[in-house]
Design goal:
Order of helices and strands: HHHEEHHH
Radius of gyration: 31 Å
Oligomer: single chain
Number of helices: 6
Largest sheet: 2 strands, antiparallel
Bound molecules: zinc ion
Helix content: 40-55%
Number of strands: 2
Number of domains: 1
Distance between the termini: 113 Å
Length: about 150
Amino acid sequence: MVDLEEREKGKEFSKKVIMDFKSSRPPKPRGGKLSKDEMDRIVAQARKAREDRLKGYREQSLRIHPWVCARCGRDFTHKNLRMLTVHHKDHNHDNNPPDGSNWENLCIYCHDNEHRRYLDHMEGESDKIIDEQTDPLTHNPFAGLADMLRDRNK
Ligand SMILES: [Zn+2]
Ligand SMILES: [Zn+2]
């Protein structure tokens, strides 16, 4: 009698396991391909990450280098930090090594000066200054500089 009871229990048990197995079926396979929307989203994310990285160079440079103008030695606090800008030593804004070796913290006056000297040597490079103006973090410290220079050279 005990044997039969045990066998019934065993049957119940295996029925339950089968039920569990059926209800925990894995989700439908997705075909292994990304939809166009998903691809677009991933590409947009990657692009934004790159843009953020480029924009972040000022913050990075201010974290690495002291808040002192590398030319005139004026030092800065949170109050006037807007006047401290980040210059690219090789004038290439795409060259942003994370160790900060291409960045220099310059006050807006020395930065202005630096670009003026550079322009004396390199004609037609003013578009790089315009690039820098579009950096929202530096908030147009050189607005109108290119125009000023052009007028002055007339
Ligand atoms: Zn300075
Ligand atoms: Zn610069």
